[in-house]
Amino acid sequence: MPYNKRFDGRKFDELREISAEVGVIPNADGSAKFKIGKTIAIAAVYGPRVLHPRFLQDPTKGVLRCNYNMMSFSGSGERVRPGPSRRSKEISHITEKALEPVLDLSEFPSAVVDVYIELLQTDAGTRCAGITAAALALADAGFPMKDLISAVAVGRIEDKVVLDVSKEEEDYEGGMADIPIAMLPRTGEITLLQMDGLVTLNELKEVLKSAKKACEQIYKVQKDALRARYLK
Question: What is the CATH number for 163?
Answer without folding.
Answer: 3.30.230.70
